[in-house]
Write a structure and sequence with these properties.
With about 60 residues, the protein is an all-alpha fold. The protein has a domain of about 25 residues. It has two helices and no strands. The protein starts with a helix and ends with a helix.
């Protein structure tokens, strides 16, 4: 019964003529913020990879 109610709610939502407006957060500096966050992510990944490669190379030298 729960599945039927869920389907009916979905149909009702899909058939709404005037859906409620969604509240989106609009940031004036969205692109610049995204670009900076991507740069930070790449730097963090690069740092982690260098640290791991350094550990791996030390492990192979001892064998």
């Amino acid at each position: 019964m729960e599945h039927l109610l869920n389907m009916l709610r979905g149909y009702a939502t899909a058939l709404e003529l005037m859906p409620k407006a969604r509240r989106y957060h609009v940031d004036r500096h969205g692109f610049a913020t995204d670009a900076q966050r991507l740069r930070d992510d790449f730097q963090a990944i690069g740092h982690d990879m260098r640290a791991q490669l350094k550990r791996e190379s030390i492990n192979y030298r001892t064998r």
